[in-house]
Design a protein that fits this description.
A 4-stranded antiparallel sheet has the order 1-2-3-4, with no helix packed on it. Among the domains are: 184 residues, 7 Propeller (Methylamine Dehydrogenase, Chain H), CATH 2.130.10.30; 67 residues, Zinc/RING finger domain, C3HC4 (zinc finger) (Herpes Virus-1, 2-Layer Sandwich); 102 residues, no CATH class. Helix 4 runs parallel beside helix 5. 23% of the residues lie in helices and 24% in strands. GO terms for molecular function: zinc ion binding. Keywords: Coiled coil, Metal-binding, Repeat, Zinc, Zinc-finger. It comes from Aegilops tauschii subsp. strangulata.
């Protein structure tokens, strides 16, 4: 890239090979370089900081928005020693040594500048800084390493804690509850660990602890987090694939992560079982280390050797490897040969060099055999002539040259150059079935190919069995899922029906409540009976009532209660009237009225609905009416005073 002078050569010319950056950096010893998508930062061993590239957002720290294609020192940090710098997309972060004025102690502080729209500068105001600004919220801490993503920043303190700030769109800050305006320490699973190294990609973070454990979080697309999937992580998550590795360093690209690991063989004291057959080691079953993966195997699981082992002291000699590593190494070698093969003239399909040698050897063999058959010394003469059938020599139809052509079994035909016996020239066998034969030798590679093919066949069979097992499990899970879906669908249907019934019941209850409320408001203490019952009772009484009530009585009223009524007389004087209620029997109540003249009249009869129906009430009144009149001295006829 050379846009905006990213190379620092003073022009916009592209260079396809490395070229020394001169100018202000000429003669200076460089300690570290950091490259961002749009600018570059260079730190010298003397503590000077130089930047060049695109300065539109102030990422160069020169106090303006001018771009420069030549390295230029950051003047605001002149006189201070810059330890390390990191470049984001449009911002820059540097660790600068600062001397405390109180105790004269030196500590490494964090300075940031450039675009702060996402809070990646850590100043809480999201404003752009054109010159390096001290992060005030981290004034009590000292830092040893810093890394920048596209729009966020991660810094490692000397105490082994990680602080992040900026965008948290993919969880790259390690804490899903923060907004990134201010630097926040990353906790979670690394809260009790001492972090030794950090690295940032465009939207993810990776770190290495003192126990050689690797943790990653942030955007998980393309598998950059190393967890076997593309899921995002918003908290530090250990990479289980590197759990048994001795990791030395970690680094991040835009959308990938890489680590450097130490190769180490597993000690026999650490493992008591064979890594292949899982049998326990004993006095007879010895331990052997695989020179490719370093694990411990028994002799039966590590009998093969290979010259391609990664831990072999001498790459030219074969060393013991396990069966799995041997298969992998042979497969990798075959793939490499296939990639390096070149197409032959006139053949659209590329062939390997080994196949070409086989083809040439077969052609040479055909020529030599044809010459051999035409030699005079081998022609039948005299008693061995063609007419003599005692010792027939069939040479015209018994040699099949076409069968030698591309057979995989005959990988190398070496008649003139091999140590095999030549064509039989000794005395002719007395048996009439003897024929001219040739000695064919196979190359040493074919002997090695057989166990490799056998292992490949076993590997294919094992994978096929795993595929079948996984297919069976998948079918069982699908059936379980379908059954669960059906149950869920039935439960939803039942719930919907019950909901409809509940709504209908609520409507009925609401309607009944409304009716009861209206009846209660319209009716006094005693509820009137229907017109039919009232009219029939009036006929039985033989008098004209203005109001007749037959109500349900839950408890008997006090018979001694007397009510005084004021009724008008002809002389317009007020006379006190007396009436009371008597309980004739259980569920039957009569109200008696006594006029000022002392006459008793029957005002009303009430029956309890809990004990009498309309027919039973009518029948009871017809039977007991005379008895009541006689018992209470009630006058009969039309002279009853209405209520």
């Amino acid at each position: 890239m050379h846009n905006f002078g990213l190379l620092g050569h003073g022009n916009d010319t592209a260079h396809w090979i490395p070229k020394k950056v001169c100018g202000p950096l000429e003669g200076l010893h460089i300690s570290s370089v950091s490259c961002g998508p749009s600018h570059t930062a260079v730190v010298t061993s003397a503590g000077q900081l130089f930047t060049f590239g695109d300065g539109v957002f102030g990422a160069l720290g020169h106090g303006d928005r001018q771009s420069t294609n030549v390295a230029r020192e950051v003047s605001s940090l002149r006189g201070l020693r810059t330890v390390l710098a990191a470049c984001g997309a449009w911002h820059t972060v540097a660790i600068v040594e600062v001397v405390d004025s109180l105790n004269s102690a030196t500590s490494c502080k964090l300075f940031t500048w450039g675009d702060g729209n996402k809070g990646q500068l850590g100043h809480a105001d999201r404003e752009t800084r054109l010159i390096p600004a001290y992060v005030e919220s981290l004034r009590k801490l000292s830092f040893c390493q810093v890394a920048c993503g596209y729009d966020f920043t991660a810094a490692l303190s000397t105490s082994g804690q990680v602080y992040t700030m900026g965008s948290n769109a993919f969880g790259q800050l390690g804490n899903p509850t923060i907004d990134g305006k201010l630097p926040t320490v990353v906790k979670g699973s690394i809260s009790s660990s001492c972090v030794e190294e950090i690295a940032c990609g465009s939207h993810h973070v990776a770190l290495l602890t003192s126990k050689a454990r690797v943790y990653t979080w942030g955007k998980g697309a393309n598998g950059r987090l190393g967890h076997g999937n593309n899921f995002d992580r918003n908290t530090p998550t250990p990479v289980e694939a590197l759990k048994d590795k001795q990791v030395k360093s970690v680094a991040c690209g835009t959308d990938f992560t890489a680590v450097i690991c130490f190769h180490r063989c597993t000690s026999g004291l650490d493992q008591s079982l064979c890594s292949g057959c899982r049998l326990q080691f004993s006095f007879i079953r010895k331990r052997h280390n695989c020179y490719n993966c370093g694990l411990v195997y028994c002799k039966a699981c590590s009998m093969r050797k290979s010259t391609k082992a990664s831990l072999a002291p001498n790459s030219n000699k074969p060393y013991r490897v396990c069966d799995e590593c041997c298969t992998k190494l042979n497969t990798a070698g075959d793939a490499k040969k296939l990639q390096n093969s070149k197409p032959l003239d006139g053949n659209p399909h590329p062939l390997s060099s080994e196949a070409t040698d086989r083809e040439n050897t077969v052609k040479s063999l055909r020529v030599r055999i044809s010459r051999f058959l035409t030699m005079e010394s081998f022609k039948p003469e005299g008693k061995h002539s063609r007419n003599n059938s005692r010792f027939p020599l069939h040479h015209s139809g018994n040699l099949s040259f076409g069968s030698i052509g591309h057979s995989k079994e005959l990988t190398s035909l070496c008649i003139p150059t091999s140590t095999a016996l030549p064509l039989s020239c000794g005395p002719i066998s007395p048996h009439p079935t003897n024929r001219l034969t040739t000695s064919v030798l196979t190359s040493p590679d074919s002997a090695c190919a057989y166990p490799s093919n056998k292992n490949m066949t076993e590997e294919v069979a094992r994978l096929q069995s795993q595929v079948k097992e996984l297919t069976r499990k998948s079918e069982l899970l699908e059936a379980e899922l379908d059954r669960t879906n059906n149950q869920l669908r039935e439960a939803r249907t039942t719930a919907a029906e019950e909901n409809l019934k509940c709504k209908a019941a609520k409507e009925v209850i609401s309607s009944l409540t409304t009716q009861i409320r209206s009846i209660t408001e319209r009716t006094p203490e005693e509820c009137p009976v229907n017109d039919t019952w009232t009219s029939q009772v009036s006929k039985l009484l033989g008098s004209h009532f203005c109001e007749n009530h037959l109500n349900d009585v839950s408890r008997a009223p006090a018979s001694s209660a007397h009510l005084a009524h004021q009724s008008p007389c002809k002389e317009n004087s007020i006379v006190a009237d007396v009436e009371w209620t008597e309980q004739v029997e259980h569920g039957v109540y009569i109200t008696i009225f006594r006029s000022p003249a002392g006459h008793k009249y029957l005002r009303r009869v009430r029956f309890s609905k809990r004990h009498f129906t309309e027919q039973q009430a009518e029948r009871w009144w017809a039977e007991h009416r005379p008895t009541l009149h006689e018992q209470y001295g009630i006058l009969t006829g039309d002279s009853i005073i209405p209520s």
